[in-house]
Specification:
Length: 391
């Protein structure tokens, strides 16, 4: 059992679950922070953003550090930062301390995001990659969902500081599991035993292409998630009903992710699943602002996008050699950390400038169209690269 890649996946899944659980904590306890510390919602937004922003600075260095110190050591260091950040927040009595704690946790979290995706690909590259990727990916949204279900209640029964301490404890459990059970896949050697080479211009280009595709896909999903309820409210739907409709999209997305990975792996149809899912999500996304049945349309959108997501996430495995995945994923995730805030801010700007969230949802559909177009560029560049290597 301990030799199984599925056991390793379980260890990585728990770590990703803990990551989502800690990320959500600032949002979950926002009313208590506002009451106790006298902060406003803009400052709450800073706390949430402080968890993501370090990724811009740390994603590339963490990828290169993997080549020097190894996956496991770098991930353990990232988890240690997350534990420290959660513990610091748990003892905080001032807003400034919370900001520092979130930056610490976010720095560690960015390391996990970059390096653990590489770990999954290392373990599953030869078999059932898309299914393994799908199961791994859903750890993040399930962690967020669990946080939404439990953290505000814990803050009510105990204190908001206890919520942050609980996130630190959960990450500590994940750290212990990683320390005890994670190992290199069969056939992989530690960094010091691996021949080193620099990223070529082709490596960088392919990492950028796959990173941009992943950025646009996630940007489209978050724009739909953030501005979908606003658009439904503008159409006259009650607030609670609008939130419920769009939350169904998230639940369908989580459930359908493994299905996309299974179909792509079981029937060896990754491109058909990916392109079909993207095309369907573009068509559905274009109709969402005008759909007479938004509940069905949002659910189908989440289903279609979920089918494509695990295959899109696995694209770097097709172009990055094993000893280049660390630095390659650092560049790949730089697009995510740097581009995502810009895309979501642009969606918000369009809402303000046009006076309607319809413009934000149209932007989400355009993002998916960019994703599909860049996928075509990626396949063309991949074909040319293969031809050069054969020559």
């Amino acid at each position: 059992m301990l030799e199984s890649r599925w056991f390793i996946l379980a260890v990585l899944f728990i770590a990703r679950f803990a990551l989502g659980y800690q990320f959500q904590s600032a949002g979950s306890v926002a009313p208590y922070l506002i009451h106790d510390l006298g902060v406003d919602y803009a400052q709450i937004g800073i706390l949430i953003g402080a968890f993501i922003l370090p990724g811009v600075a740390i994603s590339v260095p963490s990828g290169f550090l993997v080549s020097r110190f190894g996956d496991k050591n770098i991930v353990l260091a990232g988890m240690a930062l997350m534990v420290a950040g959660g513990a610091l927040a748990g003892g905080a009595r001032a807003y400034d301390v919370l900001v520092v704690s979130r930056v610490l946790s976010g720095t560690g979290g960015a390391i996990l995001v970059v390096v653990m995706l590489k770990m999954i690909i290392d373990w599953f590259a030869d078999k059932e990659l898309f299914l393994g990727m799908a199961v791994f990916i859903i750890g993040w949204p399930i962690g967020i969902a669990a946080a939404q279900a439990t953290q505000s209640r814990l803050a009510e029964l105990q204190s908001w500081q206890m919520v942050f301490l609980a996130t630190a404890a959960l990450v500590a459990v994940a750290l212990l599991l990683m320390l005890l059970f994670y190992r290199l896949p069969p056939g992989h050697r530690p960094p010091e035993a691996t021949a080193r080479r620099r990223l070529t211009r082709s490596d960088v280009g392919m990492a950028c292409l796959t990173g941009a595709i992943w950025m646009f896909l996630n940007g489209a999903y978050l724009a739909m998630l953030s501005f979908g309820p606003v658009q439904l409210i503008e159409r006259g739907m009650p607030i609670a009903a609008a939130d419920a409709v769009v939350s169904l999209m998230s639940f369908v997305f989580i459930v359908a992710l493994p299905l996309g990975g299974y179909v792509a792996s079981r029937y060896n149809l990754p491109d058909a699943v990916m392109v079909g899912g993207l095309v369907a999500s573009i068509l559905l996304g274009a109709t969402i602002p005008f759909s007479p049945s938004p509940l069905v349309t949002f659910a189908l959108f989440g289903f279609a996008l979920a089918l494509a997501t695990p295959v899109v996430a696995a694209l770097p495995a097709q172009v990055l050699e094993a000893n280049m995945r660390g630095p390659g994923f650092g560049i790949y995730y730089l697009w995510y950390f740097g581009g995502m805030p810009v895309l979501i801010a642009l969606a918000g700007l369009l809402r303000d400038r046009t006076g309607s969230a319809t413009a934000s949802l149209v932007l989400a559909t355009v993002m998916l169209a960019c994703c599909l177009a860049l996928l075509g560029v990626f396949r063309f560049a991949q074909g040319r690269r293969r031809a050069r290597l054969r020559a």
